[in-house]
Design a protein that fits this description.
Shape: globular
Helix content: 25-40%
Pfam family, one: CMD
Oligomer: single chain
Order of helices and strands: HHHHHHEEEEEEEEEEEEEEEH
Organism: Dorea formicigenerans
GO molecular function: peroxiredoxin activity
Protein name: Cupin domain-containing protein
InterPro entries: AhpD-like, CMD-like, Cupin_2, HNL-like_cupin, RmlC-like_jellyroll, RmlC_Cupin_sf
Distance between the termini: 62 Å
CATH topology of the largest domain: Jelly Rolls
Strand content: 25-35%
Length: about 240
Amino acid sequence: MLAHFNDDVLFGENWNNQDIDVKTRSIITVAALMSQGITDSSLKFHLQNAKAHGVTQKEIAAIITHVAFYAGWSKGWAVFNLAKEVWGAGEGDLPYEDEAMRAHAKEMVFPIGVPNDGFAQYFTGHSFLAPVSTSQVGIFNVTFEPGCRNNWHIHRAKSGGGQILVCVAGRGYYQEEGKEAIEMKPGDCINIPAEVKHWHGAAPDSWFSHLAVEVPGEETSNEWCEPVTDEEYGKLK
């Protein structure tokens, strides 16, 4: 009887119903299992099924990130690890010549993206940018080469605003003016209030990637200040 409902009804009639396409059904199923904290082989099967039905690496990263805001970050990280296995790129799939950069890319489900040329003037070293979400809440995966950091800057806002950083790979630092730098490793989250002067970037010996989440606010803007000097940066370990 159970096999009948599972094979004939659930995976037969329900999955073949044309009211919703199979790609959408795959996304809904992954979100439902993730929200319940189910991260065993059944979820991995449905992740593989989602990939087979056209869900891309970029899309699954956005899906998991979105659901994590509602279901919890711990569930999100567990699903990210499974997704990395399913969407994990092989050596021939990564378009990076630098061996360390290729190794870093394999550590995360998010793409490294393209050179961050639009903001290059505000960075020491090379950085890369990959949009994860550009609607509702802006979420971007920012990647720094070893030694790269952005200038001191301030997120201005009349109310609300600020930024949230979530490290997804490598090792880096966040520092507020007048305070000691905070080391960031995968899973670490930093909440940056509006009107606080700060900088963030990679450790001298490691690639570093973090999600930058734009906190909604009123009359928000970004004020770029002076670069982090070699002397300031040299104090880091």
